[in-house]
Write a structure and sequence with these properties.
Shape: globular
Largest sheet: 5 strands, parallel
Distance between the termini: 6 Å
Mean pLDDT: 88
Oligomer: single chain
Strand content: 5-15%
Strand order of the largest sheet: 2-3-1-4-5
Radius of gyration: 15 Å
CATH class: Alpha Beta
Number of helices: 7
Low-confidence stretches: none
Number of strands: 5
Number of domains: 1
Length: 177
């Protein structure tokens, strides 16, 4: 495992329900960095919720907006960036993440994702008759992409967000490797 000093750009990837936003806020607080959530930034810039973008423009339209936001956000210094769960499905996004910062994959099993996202109507890809099967299919498709772009993989299923953030910080600072 490589050893780093605290990087100025940390990007969190992982499936929906992994806790990227919650852990990201904690990590930014621990390291004295600014927290940014790419999904929230897309919503702020468009003035509408992500489900509305999916309804109007489809997933492809959303991904184009997401990619433009990621291009800008990954160039900022002093940030912890929580990406959307599907950001890694676009090769250009993976390239940006890998080239511009340190990437941490918050691995979370499907059973935990299901528990954390149950009843969440703001996740367009889960508006399905079988959310568990949908999450499983997404995990099978995306897990290799998360792992390919990640500099470190952190188990995010158990424990509090602060502890997960501490594990990431320790790993990035070479204390937990």
């Amino acid at each position: 495992m490589a050893r780093w000093h605290t990087p100025s750009r940390i990007f969190l990837v992982g499936p929906m329900g992994a806790g990227k936003s919650t852990v990201g806020r904690e990590l930014a607080d621990l390291l004295g960095l600014t927290f940014v959530d790419s999904d929230a930034e897309v919503e702020r810039r468009t003035g509408v919720a992500i489900p509305w973008i999916f309804d109007l423009e489809g997933e492809q339209g959303f991904r184009a907006r997401e990619s433009a936001v990621l291009d800008e956000l990954t160039a900022r210094d002093g940030v912890v960036l929580a990406t959307g769960g599907g950001a890694v499905t676009v090769a250009a996004n993976r390239d940006l993440l890998g080239a511009r910062g340190v990437v941490a994959y918050l691995y979370t099993p499907v059973s935990v994702q299901l528990q954390r996202t149950r009843g969440d109507t703001d996740r367009p890809l889960l508006q399905d008759s079988d959310p568990e099967a949908r999450l499983q299919a997404l995990m099978e498709a995306r897990d290799p992409l998360y792992r390919a772009v990640a500099d470190t993989v952190v188990e995010a299923a158990g424990g509090r967000a602060r502890r997960v953030a501490q594990r990431i910080a320790e790993t990035l600072q070479g204390e937990g490797a």
